[in-house]
Design brief:
alpha/beta; four-stranded parallel sheet; 15% strand
C-alpha cells in the first residue's frame, strides 16, 4: 500500500528554497574531472557536498524544513533520529536559530558524527543500531518533552531542501542529463527527481546503494517500499531498512534503475577520490563514483555524481586510503 505524494514542488518553490539556503550554505562546487570523463566517454562532474558547512548535503533539507516550522513549533525545541549527517545538520541549524535540538543516534554511529552533533550543541540520545529503534525512541522522547519532530527524509520540506542540490547542478550546467545519487531513505534521490521533473524531464536519474542495503532495488521490483530484514555496509549513512514511503512516491515517477556496489568497490572509490582528486569523501558519499569505477554504470550523456558528504572516521579513512 502506498501513500500518494503531495504535489511536486514548483520550480519557484525550489528556487526560493535555494535562495534561502544561501544564508548559511552557498552553492557547492561542481567539478569536472578529466579522468572520470575519459573513463566514461562522457563529461563527468562531481557535486561536492562534502564542502557544506557541516560536511554533508543534509544541510539543505534540515535548514529548509526547520526554517519553515511555525514559531510555536520552533519554540518547543526539535528532535530527530539519524545515523549521523542529518543529526549534525539539524543541530547546526538549531544552533544558528537558537533552538534546542535532541538527536537520537545509534550506538554504532561513527564518533566523528556524534562529536559533530555535540559540537553544534545537540543533545545526543543513544539507542539500538536498527533504524526502527531510532524512530521509536525519537517518538517517545518527542511525546515526553513536547518536541517537534524533523524527519530525516520522509517529509515534503526535507525533499524540497534536497531538491536544491540538483537545481544548482542544472543552473550551472544545463547540459547535464544524468544524475547518480546515493540512496538511503531516499530524500536526496527524491529531491533530485523533483528538480529534473521541472528542469530536465528527459534526465536519467539512478540510485546507487550498497549490496548489503539494497532497499531501492527491492522497492523498484515490488512497486512499493519493502522493508529488508537487515542491512550492513561500510556506507553507514545508507542503512535504513526501507526507502521512505513519501520519498518513493517521488522517486517512482523518474527512477527506473538502481545500481548496487560492494564494500570493496566503495572503499576503492574513497581511495580514488582522495588519491586522484584530493577529495576526502565518506563511504556513503562515494557510492556513485564506485559504480562508475567498477563498470556497473555507463553514462550516455553528461553526468553529475553527487558526493554527498565527507564526515568519515579518521581511522577508517586512513585504512581505506592506505
Amino acid at each position: 500500500m502506498t501513500t500518494a505524494a503531495p504535489p511536486v514542488p514548483t520550480l519557484d518553490e525550489i528556487r526560493q528554497a535555494a535562495e534561502a539556503l544561501r544564508e548559511v550554505a552557498p552553492p557547492t562546487p561542481l567539478v569536472e574531472t578529466a579522468d572520470l570523463s575519459r573513463r566514461a566517454s562522457q563529461p563527468v562532474f562531481l557535486k561536492c557536498e562534502l564542502w557544506q558547512p557541516m560536511g554533508a548535503f543534509k544541510m539543505r533539507g534540515a535548514w529548509t524544513a526547520i526554517t519553515r516550522l511555525s514559531p510555536e513549533a520552533k519554540a518547543r525545541g526539535i528532535i530527530t533520529h539519524s545515523s549521523g549527517n542529518h543529526g549534525q545538520a539539524v543541530a547546526f541549524t538549531a544552533q544558528k536559530l537558537g533552538l534546542r535540538a535532541v538527536i537520537v543516534m545509534p550506538r554504532t554511529a561513527p564518533a566523528i558524527k556524534v562529536e559533530g552533533v555535540r559540537r553544534y550543541g545537540g543533545e545526543v540520545v543513544f539507542t539500538d543500531a536498527i533504524s526502527s529503534a531510532r524512530l521509536q525512541r525519537a517518538a517517545e522522547v518527542a511525546a515526553e518533552e513536547g518536541l517537534t519532530m524533523v524527519p530525516p527524509y520522509d517529509d515534503p520540506n526535507i525533499v524540497l531542501g534536497q531538491s536544491t542540490c540538483a537545481f544548482e547542478v542544472l543552473q550551472s550546467h544545463p547540459e547535464i542529463s544524468t544524475f547518480l545519487a546515493p540512496i538511503g531513505g531516499g530524500g536526496l534521490l527524491a529531491g533530485t527527481c523533483v528538480t529534473v521533473i521541472h528542469g530536465r524531464p528527459d534526465a536519467r536519474v539512478v540510485g546507487v546503494e550498497p549490496e548489503g542495503a539494497a532497499k531501492l532495488s527491492a522497492a523498484l521490483e515490488a512497486g512499493h517500499p519493502v522493508a529488508l530484514e537487515s542491512t550492513a555496509s561500510l556506507a553507514d549513512g545508507l542503512l535504513p531498512l526501507s526507502v521512505g514511503t513519501l520519498t518513493f512516491e517521488y522517486i517512482r515517477q523518474v527512477v527506473r534503475e538502481a545500481v548496487r556496489v560492494t564494500d570493496e568497490e566503495i572503499g576503492a572509490a574513497v581511495r580514488y577520490l582522495w588519491r586522484e582528486q584530493g577529495l576526502r569523501v565518506e563511504p556513503s558519499g562515494a557510492v556513485g563514483v564506485a559504480a562508475l569505477l567498477a563498470g556497473k554504470f555507463k553514462p550516455k550523456t553528461p553526468t553529475a555524481i553527487l558526493l554527498t558528504g565527507g564526515n568519515v572516521d579518521p581511522a577508517l579513512f586512513q585504512k581505506l586510503v592506505a
